[in-house]
Amino acid sequence: MIIVVLYISVVERTKEIGILRAIGARRKDIKRIFFAEATVLGLSSGIIGVVIAAIVGLIGNNVMEKVFEAKLINVSVGYMLLGIGISVGISIVAALFPASKAAKLDPMESLRYE
């Protein structure tokens, strides 16, 4: 899904990318924009996932404590950071193709694009 979101972003912002390239932005700069977007997307989705996991873990442990007198779900800070890190890593890897596609756009063709 991250690839789809970033690819749609490239298609929708073709004219903007053309303007950036026309005023002197390098291919590296365009790639950095998309990698930054992917990082923010991965970070925010990782944080949302960690919050949901913590809530489910808390509720699940309360239910398990009452029924079986044992805590089975362990959501520690280390696992939370690992989850966020994996989310950001996957997002950055998923941004490779859309970022390179955006960087390869011809400025003149991009400005003509509607």
Structural notes for this entry:
With 114 residues, the chain is an all-alpha fold. The protein has one domain (2-106). The protein contains 6 helices and no strands. Helix 1 (2-12) runs parallel beside helix 5 (96-103) and helix 3 packs antiparallel against helix 4.
Question: What attributes characterize this protein structure?
Answer:
6 helices, mainly alpha
Short description:
By secondary structure, this protein is an all-alpha fold. It has helices at 2-12, 14-22, 27-68, 77-94, 96-103, 107-112.
The total number of structural domains is 1
Cα distance spanning the termini:
25 Å
Largest sheet: none
Strand content: under 5%
Element layout with pairings:
Blueprint (H helix, E strand, L loop, with lengths): L1 H11 L1 H9 L4 H42 L8 H18 L1 H8 L3 H6 L2
Helix pairs in contact: 1-5, 3-4, 3-5
